[in-house]
Each structure stands twice: as structure tokens, then as C-alpha cells.
Amino acid sequence: MRVTVLNGVNLNILGRRDPELYGGISIGELENRIYEWARSLEMMVQCRQTNDEGEYIHWCHDAHNNADGLVVNPGAWSHYAWSIRDALEPLTIPIVEVHLSNIDEREDWRRVSVTSDVVSTRIVGQGPDGYKQALEYLKAHE
Ligand code: DQA
Q: Ligand 1 centre from 77 Cα, in Å?
């Protein structure tokens, strides 16, 4: 099973963001963990991160041909980027939306997720382990 993991805006500075909320690890460490989990689940994973919304959208489009499952953490784009929602909508593969922090219990503006109606499931507030749970979900829904 081929899985693409797309981390969005500001996730490149993860290690410098509030460790209580985001787990205190760098994007490199997070991706290494994801690759390890993927190996043990016998999945082929490609992790990518960008701060460029257009690039993120291109990668969502690419998942149509390149992936059997998609994990997205669009960061703050989740709360307002309808363009990303529309890029995900036509995909027929399962999509898991992950947030390290529990956005459902933070500021009002963060409780809005414009992508939530086009994803298969959401995992919030589990820290880095949320990505492991996302891979396990995709494995179970192969
Ligand atoms: C986040 C939550 C967003 O509200 C925030 O803007 C992020 C990270 C998370 O993983 O908890 O950048 O997506």
C-alpha cells in the first residue's frame, strides 16, 4: 500500500513550537517515526511538507495517481483553505486528517476544519502517535 503524508504550513518549525501542544519533536524526527511505523506495517510511505499552499494542492492532486491512501495535516490551512478542501474532494482513496493538538478543544477559529467533510476520518490531539493511528486506519481500510 502506497501512502502519502502531507504536512502543511508551519509544520517545518515543529520543534520550536509549543511542546505541550505539538510534542516537541522536529519535522525530521516526526517523519522518521512515520517511516518506521510504515515499515512495521509494510506500507510504502512518502512524507512531504511545504509552506506553499499551491504546492500542497499539487501534491493532493498527485495522490490521485501515486497513492492508495493519504494522510493530511494542513496546519492552519485546515481552518480556512477551501482550495485544499476542493483538491481533496475528488480523491477516491481514503484520507485521514491528523492534528497533533486537539483542535476541537482550542480557540473557536481552530475548531473549524474546512476539510473535515471530505476526509474519511480525523485524528486529533494524539501528538505524533496520531500519524501512527492514521497509518493503522489506512491499513485496516486497504
Ligand atoms: C495543527 C493545528 C493547527 O491549528 C495549527 O495551525 C497547526 C498545527 C496541529 O497539528 O495540531 O499548525 O494542525
A: 9
